[in-house]
Amino acid sequence: MSASTSASARIAPAGKPAEVASGAKRERVFSGIKPSGTPTLGNYIGAIRHWVAEQDIYDNIYCVVDLHAITVPQDPEELRFNTRQLYALLVASGLDPARSAIFVQSHMHEHAELAWVLDCVTPMGWLNRMTQFKSKAGSDRELASAGLYTYPVLMAADILIYHADAVPVGEDQKQHVELARDVANTFNNRFGETFVEPRPIVRTVGARIMSLDDPSKKMSKSESENSYISMIDEPAAIRKKIARATTDSERTIVFDEKRPGIFNLLAIYQSLTGRSQDAIEAEFEGKGYKEFKAALADAVVETLEPIQQRYKALMADPDGLERLMAEGAAKVQPTAQATLQTVLEKVGLR
Ligand code: TYM
What we know:
Elements: H1 3-10, E1 28-33, H2 41-53, E2 59-64, H3 66-69, H4 76-93, E3 100-104, H5 110-119, H6 124-128, H7 131-137, H8 146-160, E4 166-168, H9 174-191, E5 199-201, H10 235-243, H11 260-273, H12 277-283, H13 289-315, H14 318-347
Parallel strand pairs: 1-2, 2-3, 4-5
Helix pairs in contact: 4-13, 5-8, 5-14, 8-9, 10-13, 11-13
């Protein structure tokens, strides 16, 4: 029996987050996003918009991963707010609580429990190779938290506890998903077929949106304010940030990876408009950076404005938001509980 067949057999119907209308088994996707600040246009383009667009293809589970947010120093009040804000932004972006299970990681204690068991089967050598730890730990690694170091194992637990087949992520998370796959394989070899070995889904366009003021770095909410567009930036701020984004001294507006500034802006434009590179190059032939940047700003504003309106309405109803979060957790809980129980039995803890 394959891992995926055995997994689906183990999942109680009540734990299934989405009904499969046709009767055919849909692949299950799981993905997460950290509430460590307002999400950026990079999060939206690299991850969220795909989650939204593909809800009818997959059996969907999406998670606000607040346990991951405390791996670096965090203000408690801000974390509480960021968690709700991010949840509201996911729903405002079009993740539909009726078609997807959307929940907050810490509402499900099973993730952290499974992570401990998986910590105990994961070789340290694998964690030593994680590039994100190296970049996030900073210059003095001795001071980084043990949580930051074992973070990829918690991420593996998030994915494996639901037997997800695939994990749609931006480029920077691919290595972590591959680790989850290796952890699943190791556990299965040692204790018998238990977990599905998940695969990453990384897009060809927009999987790595770069900083606006330093296109050699990933766009990230942890960098300076002008380097990223937040999902709740006002139109005026969006236009200003794009107008001052780094380009180069050349004139042509063409997709050329050797010109990282303009290439990044073009990639954003391509992601948001869905148009081909040829069509975009034709559109801006003979035009200057100023015109292109104005068109790009329009595309970003047009994308974010309706999301921001829905976001404001959701944030104005905190009880409604709490209800959605509780319903999301209730949908996934039976599966998480069943997986954890199986794992505890397999390793001899029950
Ligand atoms: P996080 O919160 O950093 O990012 C959430 C998603 O957004 C993508 N992303 C980007 N894509 C393109 N360009 C960018 N500049 C950019 N910045 C971020 C990320 O690749 C990600 O898909 N460890 C994860 C959260 C996590 C998770 C999981 C993901 C925890 N458990 C299980 C998948 C499955 C993280 O910190 O993502």
